[in-house]
Amino acid sequence: MIYLCIPFSHICFCNQSKIKKKNKASGFGAEQLSKILKCSLLWVSVKTMNYDIIFVGINASDINYSAGRYDPTVKPPFDAGFEGIGEVVGLGLGASSDYTIGDTVAYFRNGAFAEYTIAPAKECIRVPLVKPEFLTLLVSGATAYIALKRLGDLTKGETVLVTAAAGGTGQFAVQFAKQAGCHVIGTCSTNEKAGFLKSIGCDRPINYKEENLGETLRKEYPKGIDVVYESIGGSILDVAVNCLAQKGRLIVIGFISGYQSASGIPAFKGATLPVKLLQKSPVTLFCNKKTQNISGPPTHLKVFETWCHYTSMLLALSSTLSPINI
């Protein structure tokens, strides 16, 4: 079975003598010119809060959204940026029971590319420290968590393949699968990344620049792969489909290989895909899953609030993380 789950124009918020900058896309794609505008400071409403953004994250979702690929109804100019961490500086009456001035919060909502924003309190998550590492939980961590928990149906002892395993969401998928007691294979492009994968628990890193991925999987895993967490597309997707075990689950969370194209979608020859997937799942016939109403990352991020305090997962994040301090 298969699951398919820039220059910016600056708007300045004037708060007495302090200017707050906000990035706003003036067009689709990175080739657009930018300009500086000014507008009045917006104040909190009953259930919202103001906060100064200290760190923001940038990932593939931001590229695709800014290119107009995620929501065709969005027209320039529009806010951009999905994840930020900052300090609460203003509270609406309805938010004051949950937060206080000075609290550190993570923010998952469009418009994070700014020095200052207003957000509904229910869409923010309290974090213990202003650390950029927590940003990785908002998009990358939530993607892996939702996909593997809701769609992966991981069972102890199963074999899981994670493509682009050393990437932002891949490294979370590796660790979640290991926590579930699975044997984890991770693809990467350098020996340095292979070493990183070993350090976070990956059982079999595969550097596809030095090993043939398809041949390696067929030789070392003749019974096939139970769950594939796939984000590259193209030839890697072909290998993933071919290596699935019977009743295996293929979870497609992205297609990096096509993000630089005009449409953001890679060319795909899928005429044989239904036949291949049918061969992998002769008993269930694709019917053991129904379309689910996934409530979205903010709900699932409540799980991460506890992890922020107790888990060692953040300590295993790549030391090469380069946060942007705005």
TrEMBL record:
It holds the Pfam family ADH_zinc_N. Keywords: Oxidoreductase. SUPFAM superfamilies: GroES-like, NAD(P)-binding Rossmann-fold domains. SMART domains: PKS_ER. It comes from the Eukaryota. The keyword Calcium does not apply. Its EC number is 1.3.1.48. GO terms for cellular component: mitochondrion. It is an enzyme of class 1 (oxidoreductase). Residues 29-321 form the Enoyl reductase (ER) domain. GO terms for molecular function: 15-oxoprostaglandin 13-reductase [NAD(P)+] activity; zinc ion binding. InterPro entries: ADH-like_C, ADH-like_N, ER, GroES-like_sf, NAD(P)-bd_dom_sf, Quin_OxRdtase/zeta-crystal_CS, Zn-ADH-like_protein. Belongs to the zinc-containing alcohol dehydrogenase family. Quinone oxidoreductase subfamily. This is 15-oxoprostaglandin 13-reductase.
